[in-house]
Amino acid sequence: MARQPAQVPVSSPRLLASAIGVAITAGSAGHMVFAAEKTDSKATGNAIALDATAITGEAQDSTSYQVEKASSPKYTAPLVDTPRSVTVIPQQVLKDTGALNMQDALRTVPGITFGAGEGGNPQGDRPFIRGFDAQGDTYLDGVRDTGSQSREIFAVENIEVSKGPNSAIGGRGAAGGSINLVSKKAHLGNSFDGGFTWGSDQTQRYTMDGNYQFSDTAAGRLNLMSHESNVAGRDKVDYDRWGIAPSLAFGLGTDTRVNLDYYHLESNDTPDSGIPYTIPAGGSAARTKSSPDKPYAGGDHSNFYGLDRDFRKGRTDTATFAIEHDLSDSLTIKNTLRHGTSMQDYILTQPDDSKGNVNNGSVWRRANTRVSNTETTTNQTDLFGNFYVAGFKNSFSTGVEYTREESSKSSYNVNTDTTPRTSAVTTNCNPGLIGAASGYNCTSLSNPTPNDPWNGAISRNYAGTDTQSDTYALYAFDTLELSEQWLVNMGLRYDHFETGYKTYTNAGRTTSKGSDTSEFVTGQFGIVYKPAENGSIYASYATSATPPGNTLGEGQEGNPLGGTPDRNGNLLKSDMEPETTKNYEIGTKWDLLNDRLSLTADIFRTEKENARVQVDTTSYENAGKTRVQGIELSASGKITDKWQVFAGYAYMDSEQVDGGDLPANKANNGNELPNTPKNSASLWTTYQVTPKLTIGGGAFYVDDVFGSVANTTMVDSYVRYDAMAAYKLTKNVDLQLNVQNLTNETYYDKAFSTHFANQAAGRTALLSTNFHF
């Protein structure tokens, strides 16, 4: 049957692709003529302006893998003097590795894995940082980016990953850390970067990044992107998206600066339904942690268990107005006003193991559906700078925040029972029922047919859940320099979080509702000793808080608002307290080789002491405890003028210490946490063989990962190898070839707790032609 139309139509990116192609061609011709008439000294002034006005985690030079400082003023010291683990993925690493989205980029940071989504837990980016779900802990330029999304990076300058509880910096959640995307903004100077990437599996990607200075203090910037591709090693799966991100800046180089930024992304994909887990003869209830089930595709790992009815559409719009004023040489005030919306609309066929199948060679096709919209308005005011008290220097940042978030979630009715047959079909799926006998809802494990003539009915189901929240927050941070050798880093945040929800029928009748108000104080404290100017040794403590309703239904709620409603719609008894997490960390950071190479090492212990657990059939309590402890190592920067490296290693020992008194939960005590590999490592390195030729490569290792805390489902460890080569044809044109997953390794990069895991792409070759002026 025809694909069900989305509630909000998504326009085709073909027109944008053509526009970008024309812009690149026209821009290239004009600039080539212009360049021929100019000397090389033309760019000198512009280069100085670019460095002077760049925002954020700016690398020492435009091609360096080393970054000296995070973008947010809440980080009141350079990274080498910041007493916590912070990794910044700079633009050059994004470019060299051929990263196309946030998940690609975060592959270079050990200690981060990704979880899968279905219907209740939405599709989209679901990172786990140090073993804790961070689906709701992504920020854009320091402001929370609410809503489940698959994030692009065409308009991203760099990505900052802060590990360890981080509520003091960003607010609620962030039990394992947070991710901040730093956007590309208008700057002084004229520049043009455009390119197209053609690759295997029908990949076509076009990008343009143009900046124009139209007065002494004002500039505009425009980023465009169009992307189409299939997925190597996977049948039927495809991605189709386009985006635009204009930016205007006024008052650059003056005491008062104004930024106007907008971001729009639309996507229209055929989503990957994943690979089902094997299942013992006794069914899924017979799974044991002594022999966990693993994904199996019946002998052909390219098998796709979805149907042609499947689709996933998305749209994100974000508008930001920021004004910044220097009150003095050492004091700045900034106000940021942002309004954003995020939409998801999909029908995803999940290979379901609940019909007594998989072990007998058949797979039940279960529809997961979602229509969700999230709207967020944030106003954040920051005052930052430095001052002296009794001769001691204080680098400080303080501010206030108000945020209003609203989320609406509903679904589709997918009637699979349209063919007359025995009632046994609705409870079983076996080889005899594959095909027409089950209305094509039961398919073959080894040879599924996505274009089966499924004739079920699809209609909108307007029953759903509305959730809203208000956040009021105050925060302050300070780095106190007691001497040249001793620093004290402090941070404190107060949050007042009000949230409420209601569920309703298709006719609009309210079936249940609830609300909660949480107040919590989170903080961080660290002592830094500097045995030398280029190094530090530190010890730190930090906390986070996850209140009920933390993700507004746009992620997995470990601490949901209320509990399970009883038959009268009343919520089960719950103490409704925020979960709290604390982190202890000892580490050292050094900038070596004339400050070209940064090395870090840390030992950490993260504890969630009052995780919400169900203690009996009628009530919940914040009585659980989980723990992750381990070590981390990293290196970033230049070993020589021609040799760069971006590498890291993480060891994580995770455990559910106390799951509460409910027997099913208590049985998991001592188990490893899901999506938390014991060992993970990444190495990416490049070498400039000649002034025109650069070669590089990488290796990425992730240990075995369990899908659930019961440890009864898992995906195996893997090593993936990548390679690249870049060649400068002229000063304005270069070529780059990336081959990802060089050995065509079959591996799984997302493990769901039950039913299925997501398989990563096979060998992918990408050839890019890039223009720079």
User: Mean pLDDT, nearest integer?
Assistant: 88
Report the top-level CATH class.
Mainly Beta
Reported by name, the CATH topology is: Maltoporin, Chain A
Q: Helicity, in percent?
A: under 10%
Q: How many β-strands, per DSSP? A: 37
Strand content: over 45%
As a whole number of angstroms, the C-alpha radius of gyration is: 26 Å
Number of helices: 6
Low-confidence stretches: 1-59, 420-425
Report the oligomer: single chain
Characteristic key phrases:
single chain, 773 residues, mainly beta, 22-stranded antiparallel beta barrel, globular
Task: Tell me briefly what this model is.
This protein is mostly beta strands. It contains six helices and 37 strands. The protein starts with 13 loop residues before the first helix and ends with a strand.
Protein architecture, described:
This protein is mainly beta and 773 residues long. It has a single domain (14-772), classed as TonB-dependent receptor, beta-barrel domain (Maltoporin, Chain A). Helix content is 7%, strand content 51%. It has six helices and 37 strands. The strands form five sheets. The chain has a 22-stranded antiparallel barrel. Strands 1-7-8-5-6 form a five-stranded mixed beta sheet. Strand 21 (486-504) and strand 22 (510-532) form a beta hairpin. The protein starts with 13 loop residues before the first helix and ends with a strand. Mean pLDDT is 88; it is low at 1-59 and 420-425.
